[in-house]
């Protein structure tokens, strides 16, 4: 028995950029994700940019997790090893379940593009209140790799044998 839908189901997705140096006019990775998700047929439910601060990140993502219409969150930035990179620490406590394979697969796919530097990525994903959350590095290339090779297929109801769509809240 297949759990995949026969037709595409657009999702309501939010994009968060975590950056100490960008604003919405210079946020190329966040804009890339917005263009990619809308280009794939999904709906942009909200977009925000916050400095790399655990509590500001948690405040925005917590609000989106609680929002009945937001089914997924794409976060770019704050996943490295500098002293200010705190996205994983901000997000992990909010998760009901971590998608362990996401970070592993992201690093495996990235290896062909950036070699061993991929081990410095702390990309992660998880589910909170039936909302899928993906945390990606802040570069355009990392967002492209994550979206095209992993996230887009897992947010497509037609993906077989399964995608995350069946586990998400219904949205509005």
Automatic annotation (TrEMBL):
SMART domains named in the record: MoCF_biosynth
CDD domains xrefs: MogA_MoaB
Assigned keywords, A-Z: Molybdenum cofactor biosynthesis
Entry annotated with the keyword Cell inner membrane: no
UniProt entry tagged with the keyword Transmembrane: no
Top-level taxon: Bacteria
Pathway it works in: Cofactor biosynthesis; molybdopterin biosynthesis
Pfam family, any one: MoCF_biosynth
InterPro entries according to UniProt: MoaB, MoaB/Mog-like_dom_sf, MoaB/Mog_dom, MoaB_proteobac
UniProt domain MoaB/Mog: residue ranges: 14-158
PANTHER family named among the record's database cross-references: MOLYBDENUM COFACTOR BIOSYNTHESIS PROTEIN B
Function noted in UniProt: May be involved in the biosynthesis of molybdopterin.
Family as reported in the entry's similarity comment: Belongs to the MoaB/Mog family.
Protein name according to UniProt: Molybdenum cofactor biosynthesis protein B
